[in-house]
């Protein structure tokens, strides 16, 4: 009798399973958040990077409502732009601005809004911007792609308002998305100096997140195509070395068969040793095909040529991102008649920028010497800028905050802030050598008498 009962019960269960309606699941969507968190003419290339990425997603068939663009939008119509209403990412002069839908402009391009968009928090977006705006309204079946092109310092991505995003903050947001089932796979591409420091020793390998960075945790990212003859005296870098590589590669790849890992290795090869792209997190995602994150390739849908054109005879030029303000002025000056009125104005800006840089150098040198004494040679201090170990956040975070508060003209002046931030590897090293109180006291001493710093201790 028991056997019969078991069999009957088993048959009943099988029958129920066979007749039960299938659980409804919606097809997974692809979402993209594309961010250029810098403005001004010398940061032209960062907006161009994002605009071209937008074009690549649209050609992949991703609907506009699933693509969110944050960009200051001050270069297409800039007085200095000889091609009004157009933006180019390289010497081929292909307009990447045409048709771009920019969702967040001007002062709404900030860390707070970025976080709200990524978390799908519509109320927080409205509180931050004063209006309703698009968000990443993703679920557990969806793939989410985030791209940021900007400046950076050790452990930070910079933002327009100076309220920079730390690696801790970014990874806390990633953890929120993971715990709330906001993605199937999450991919982040970051093109900033020290981009690897946003993920190294922080990003887990088992939460479905894959990050690719323009460089490692201790070195600079680069901009290229900086001296186009077509721009004449207003030449500026047209794109990031890493960004130009991955976007153009994407536009020429068969996304159904090319993997994310292939794109990474292409970007690494194209970097020519200037920077060292890195991968972090769940590296198995690198084996997935590009169609999962960027949509289908244009060549599979329509005969449209978007492959990069042969480079012109113009010499390739490159600039480390933290030197963009200075080097752009220098390049422009070299293209002008020496005795022209415009050259005099640019030369004055260049000398003023050099002065700001010297004051930033002096602050970092004085800080290191206050801790190390005479043993802190200039060679040692320069070496420390790009050679440092893990970030001790319990020290580094309050010290960086103290530097920002005590030296606002160094940390919030566009012409020098990224140059100064690129020296914060020294602070990382010092935090691994002395206690926080000692370093905070040294910070105050180094600020005394420096024109970029307040002369009263906070």
What does this molecule look like?
With 458 residues, the chain is α/β, with parallel strands linked by helices. It folds into 2 domains: 271 residues, Rossmann fold (3-Layer(aba) Sandwich), CATH 3.40.50.1460; 107 residues, Topoisomerase I, Chain A, domain 4, CATH 1.10.132. Helix content is 41%, strand content 11%. It contains 16 helices and 12 strands. The strands form 3 sheets. It has a 6-stranded mixed sheet, with helices on both faces. It has a 3-stranded antiparallel sheet with strand order 4-5-6. A hairpin with a 2-residue loop joins β4 and β5. α10 crosses α16 and α11 packs across α15. The radius of gyration is 25 Å and the shape is globular. It starts with a helix and ends in an 11-residue tail after the last helix. The N terminus is likely disordered. Keywords: Signal. Pfam families: Peptidase_C13. It comes from Elysia marginata.
Brief synopsis:
By secondary structure, the chain is of the alpha/beta class. The protein has helices at 2-19, 44-59, 111-119, 122-129, 167-179, 241-252, 260-270, 291-294, 324-334, 341-372, 378-385, 393-406, 408-411, 414-421, 425-431, 436-447; strands spanning 30-36, 67-71, 143-149, 152-153, 156-157, 165-166, 185-191, 209-213, 222-224, 239-240, 278-281, 318-320. It has two domains: 30-300, Rossmann fold; 341-447, Topoisomerase I, Chain A, domain 4 (Orthogonal Bundle), CATH 1.10.132.
